[in-house]
TrEMBL record:
Keyword Membrane: no
Family affiliation: Belongs to the short-chain dehydrogenases/reductases (SDR) family.
InterPro entries per record: NAD(P)-bd_dom_sf, Sc_DH/Rdtase_CS, SDR_fam
Source organism superkingdom: Eukaryota
Species assigned in the record: Knufia obscura
Keyword tags: NADP, Oxidoreductase
Pfam families cross-referenced by the UniProt entry: adh_short_C2 (PF13561)
TM segment ranges: none
Record's protein name: NAD(P)-binding protein
């Protein structure tokens, strides 16, 4: 059976590595044309080479910059003549800070990228998504967008906010036939994961808190994203899909 995503166009932020890259590869397998963006330009070409389609364009994008978002989206629509799905994956992973040691600049950067970046891309793309044409947004939150963690106040704030923002989007856009859903990954084995960066002992500690006994793979998040964009999820709107291997709360 042909994929319902065949022939569709998806824009992905944070596509140079990790979950963004894995999702690009997955969607390309399903027949999507892709606009791949990331603030780190170096990895975008490699992601494009891994994809199963030649219908790919790449662009460096700082999602915290509204003007850049407008320009990249304009170029995407001019090139492909359409836009169907948006994966807001760009974000900054957490660093632990006690409240009184939390640098103001770090707080501002998390809000600018994780939260306002999602808003900027949404605002730039929304008018290009055709109503009642199976279009959708999938936004990335986190397990820390559903439960608090000490010394993670700034990151939790942005990821809780993504869920609230996305659920409000779903209520507003649902009548137009545009769906909005959220993925909330747990410990995923990506280059920017805090445990992975800290080394094998930290990875093992993280894995021990998961009932499946391991970190997740970026491809496993990508599978969920592709599902939420496809016809199989046509009645799923405003939902948070946890991808955490059975993490103990």
């Amino acid at each position: 059976m042909a994929s319902s995503l065949n022939g569709k166009v998806a824009l992905i932020t944070g596509a140079a590595s990790g979950i963004g890259r894995a999702t690009a590869v997955k969607l390309s397998k399903l027949g999507c044309a892709l606009a791949l963006t990331d603030v780190v330009e170096a990895g975008l070409s490699e992601t494009a080479e891994l994809c199963y389609t030649e219908k790919v364009i790449v662009a460096q994008l700082d999602v915290s910059n509204a003007e850049q978002c407008d320009l990249v989206v304009k170029e995407t629509v001019e090139y492909f003549k359409r836009l169907d799905h948006v994966f807001n994956c760009a974000g900054i992973n957490p660093t632990a800070y006690p409240i009184l040691e939390l640098p103001e600049g770090y707080f501002d950067k998390l809000v600018a990228v994780n939260l306002k970046g999602t808003y900027n891309v949404t605002r730039s793309t929304l008018s290009h998504l055709k109503e009642h044409a199976d279009c959708s947004f999938v936004n990335v939150s986190s397990i820390l967008g559903q439960r608090p963690s000490k010394e993670m106040a700034a990151y939790c704030a942005t990821k809780y906010a993504i869920i609230g923002f996305s659920k409000s989007m779903a209520l507003e856009l649902g009548p137009k036939g545009i769906r909005v859903n959220i993925v909330a990954p747990g410990f995923i084995d990506t280059p920017t994961n805090a445990s992975v960066k800290a080394g094998p002992e930290a990875v093992e500690r993280s894995a021990q808190s998961v009932s499946l006994g391991r970190l997740g793979q970026a491809e496993e998040v990508a599978n969920a994203v592709a599902f939420l964009m496809g016809d199989e999820a046509k009645y799923i709107n405003g939902s948070v899909v946890e991808i955490n291997g059975g993490l103990a709360y």
